[in-house]
Amino acid sequence: MNTDLISAEQLTAFQQDGFLIVDALFSQEEVTLLGQIGRADLAMQQVTFSRADGEGGAVKLNVENEVGDDIYGAIASSHRVVDRMEALLGDEVYHYHHKMIQKEAKVGGAWAWHQDYGYWYNNGCLSPDMGSCMIAVDRATVENGCLQVLKGSHLLGRIDHGKVGDQTGADPERVEAACKRLELFYCTLEPGSAIFFHSNLLHRSDQNKSEHPRWGFICCYNTRHNNPYKESRHPRYTPLAKREDADVLRVGHAQWEQMQAHPSL
């Protein structure tokens, strides 16, 4: 497990706050290619679905459990993401799933306050030793509905979750109390920058009423010692073959060339 990418100060900040922002984790060329491929990916659009937010809007997303030989898989298994996640969670991690959040201009819906472990608890994961890395495909701003987090809320433990529109949200009474005691932080990000966050961190986002889309690519991981005790919609532990960082551009360019040559794919 390579811990060189995370400093002692960054690890302490993650443990205290529940999240860590890494600027320019991916280059402009890499994230532009990711956006081009995602927006032209007909196969991905066929499995994209919406979740109503209970406020009149909806969020589009797709979820994939497998690490494919494409730009999504190259990013999800890249050393720069996986090694950091292992350092932050203190164990070997495996790919739990990845997803593209597609919050379109003017119509992109909100996400209710929730913890990812609020969902994943029911998948047979005994502990919240899990985390996610969200990479900004587009600039994430307050106006276009960037991620909002409550600093240190991962230390509250798992909160009960229930239905909010088509989504699952954390208990509103406890969220209200947490909002009064903890600092609200808006995770504004430039394209290619990323936020690593703990599975118990309370987070949400507003509707996108701006003129600018806000797409984000999220890679989710579980720790080896937290291997689920039962089958669920997401996989049990399988060793993750890490890929060289250079593979993101190599695989991405090959994928883009194939998509240009065969637009119907």
UniProtKB/TrEMBL annotation:
The keyword Oxidoreductase applies. Transmembrane segments: none annotated. This is Phytanoyl-CoA dioxygenase (PhyH). The keyword Transit peptide does not apply. It comes from the Bacteria. One of its GO terms (molecular function) is iron ion binding. It holds the Pfam family PhyH. Coiled coil: none annotated.
